[in-house]
């Protein structure tokens, strides 16, 4: 069969990175995107970039409240939104430029038959197909999303003024980041969730300190609460909990996870289950030469994972025989304020669940001068090693944890044992030196 393209990329989120690499290798590529102005996808337009921009601004407001500063600082949301829009426009233009040798096909694409995508009346065929259709917010049954009173992160990241009060439902990445954001800029914030701890898969000391940090930010915590119904009423949002009690808030942000976009698959050759598009360890679907990467395959919902997956697939197609990706070595993090949480490799909760022998080293940062002057009093460093003293993973809770964890990541990638990891002499005074101490104590 003759194909129009070597590769058709369906969805222009992190998939675009694969299209750029493949087109530079002179493969003929098409990228089908329903909204080309949103090239770069959720990460650029509704996710990583705007949320981290907001958190950086909020952290400045939070830090300015320290006793040794005078005066008060407030965040001009409309100005921040303007800056964000300008930044996103520049970034989208840069992506367009990188895609200059990729055919951008505008339209909602559907895989109607193997190698065949229909997009708003156009048909494109590809020798290979890479699906990267992303995910969208999941709204639990009983909650009526209306984009004004009951909202998701999409509305928060396009907000031009603050609500007087907000309740956030969900204790995952979005819930904790948004609670940190709103509380730091002075919005009365409530966090509602179904369990009794925060970061419940993290090391217990980190989980305990994450709770203390939320309290210190002034967030009202409502653990063990399950929302049965929530919808817009005269006085804001009316919430009924499963124990029958009622509650009113002006706005409810629902942050209870995201579900893969799988509707583009309309051919049984590509299997879909409740986690997303089914793929093997090479991201190949149940149909040969058809791949699914990023949020839509239900493996990890992280931009750097989506990018690594699509580049891995393109390298396979190019015949480079890349080393398989170890998704357990992908850094995961939640940007809470001031300490954020980052994790890579194995964790105590996972090791105990599987009954694996391990050694852990835990370094709390309270009382140390540098963490004290840099908002890291509640910080904790944890590293894990196996019976043969090889590094298995680590968890970091401190300002900038998502950067500091790179030390553990490199130790994992290099398959280092404790002796090798201890060779480093990291700078003083820093947070990373406490990680060095954690290796020393293993
Ligand atoms: C608030 C928030 C904050 C986040 N922060 C971080 C963070 O700090 N770090 C991190 O790593 N991750 C973060 N994420 C997650 C990250 O954004 C996603 O994991 C990442 O964007 C997934 O990339 P993707 O390419 O799989 O999907 P997407 O980026 O969602 O891209 C999918 C693309 O496909 C298009 N599309 C969908 N269906 C069709 C169709 N049928 N036809 C044509 N086009 C279609 C969409 O328009 C979109 O452009 C965050 C997410 C959110 C919501
Ligand atoms: N810093 C980052 O890397 C970052 C930041 C934001 C988002 N993200 C990505 O975006 C994805 C979505 O974020 P999220 O916070 O919405 O999802 P999440 O999976 O991180 O957390 C969802 C939370 O909602 C709860 N929940 C699930 N179903 C529920 C239900 N029916 N009722 C009540 N509670 C329920 C879960 O207990 C969970 O704690 C994440 O998987 C994450 O990978 C990443």
UniProtKB/TrEMBL annotation:
InterPro entries, per database record: Class-I_Pyr_Nuc-Dis_Oxidored, FAD/NAD-bd_sf, FAD/NAD-binding_dom, FAD/NAD-linked_Rdtase_dimer_sf, Pyr_nuc-diS_OxRdtase, Pyr_nucl-diS_OxRdtase_dimer, Pyr_OxRdtase_I_AS
Swiss-Prot/TrEMBL cofactor(s): FAD
Record's keyword annotation contains DNA damage: no
Organism: Hydrogenimonas cancrithermarum
Family, similarity comment: Belongs to the class-I pyridine nucleotide-disulfide oxidoreductase family.
Gene3D superfamilies in UniProt: 3.30.390.30, FAD/NAD(P)-binding domain
Pfam families assigned: Pyr_redox_2, Pyr_redox_dim
Taxonomic lineage from the root: Bacteria, Pseudomonadati, Campylobacterota, Epsilonproteobacteria, Campylobacterales
Location of the Pyridine nucleotide-disulphide oxidoreductase dimerisation domain: 340-438
Residue span, FAD/NAD(P)-binding domain: 5-308
Keywords: Disulfide bond, FAD, Flavoprotein, NAD, Oxidoreductase, Redox-active center
Protein name from the UniProt record: Dihydrolipoyl dehydrogenase
Flavoprotein found in the keyword field: yes
């Amino acid at each position: 069969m003759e194909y129009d393209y070597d590769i058709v990329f369906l969805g222009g989120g992190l998939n675009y990175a694969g299209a750029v690499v493949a087109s530079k290798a002179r493969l003929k590529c098409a990228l089908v995107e329903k909204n080309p102005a949103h090239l770069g996808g959720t990460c650029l337009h509704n996710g990583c970039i705007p949320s981290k921009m907001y958190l950086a601004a909020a952290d400045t407001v939070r830090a300015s409240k320290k006793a040794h500063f005078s005066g008060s600082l407030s965040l001009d949301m409309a100005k921040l939104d303007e800056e964000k829009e300008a930044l996103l426009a520049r970034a989208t233009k840069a992506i367009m430029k990188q895609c200059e040798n990729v055919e951008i096909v505008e339209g909602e694409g559907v895989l109607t038959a193997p190698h065949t995508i229909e997009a708003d009346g156009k048909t494109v065929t590809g020798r290979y197909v890479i699906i990267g259709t992303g995910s969208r917010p999941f709204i639990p049954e009983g909650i009526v999303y209306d984009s004004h009173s009951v909202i998701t992160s999409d509305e928060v990241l396009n907000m031009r003024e603050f609500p007087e009060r907000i309740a956030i439902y969900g204790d995952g990445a979005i819930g904790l980041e948004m609670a940190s954001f709103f509380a730091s800029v002075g919005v009365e914030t409530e966090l509602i969730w179904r369990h009794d701890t925060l970061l419940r898969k993290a090391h217990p000391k980190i989980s305990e300190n994450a709770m203390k940090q939320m309290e210190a930010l002034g967030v009202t915590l409502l653990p063990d609460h399950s929302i049965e119904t929530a919808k817009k009423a005269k006085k804001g949002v009316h919430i009924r909990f499963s124990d029958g009690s009622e509650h009113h808030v002006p706005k409810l942000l629902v942050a209870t996870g995201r579900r893969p976009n799988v509707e583009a698959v309309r051919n049984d050759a590509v299997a879909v289950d409740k986690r997303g598009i089914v793929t093997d360890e090479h991201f190949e679907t149940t149909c040969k030469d058809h791949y699914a990467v990023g949020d839509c395959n239900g493996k990890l919902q992280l931009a750097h994972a989506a990018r690594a997956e699509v580049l891995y697939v393109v390298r396979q197609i190019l015949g480079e025989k890349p080393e398989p990706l170890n998704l357990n070595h992908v850094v995961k993090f939640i940007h809470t304020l001031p300490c954020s949480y980052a994790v890579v490799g194995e964790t105590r909760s996972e090791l105990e669940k599987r009954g694996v022998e391990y050694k852990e080293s835990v370094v709390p940062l309270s009382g140390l001068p540098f963490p004290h002057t840099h908002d890291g009093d509640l910080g904790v460093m944890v590293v894990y090693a196996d019976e043969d003293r090889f590094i298995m993973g680590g968890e970091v809770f401190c300002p900038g944890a998502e950067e500091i964890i790179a030390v553990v990541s490199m130790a994992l990638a290099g398959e280092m044992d404790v002796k090798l990891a201890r060779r480093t002499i990291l700078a003083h005074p820093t947070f990373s030196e406490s990680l060095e101490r954690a290796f020393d104590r293993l």
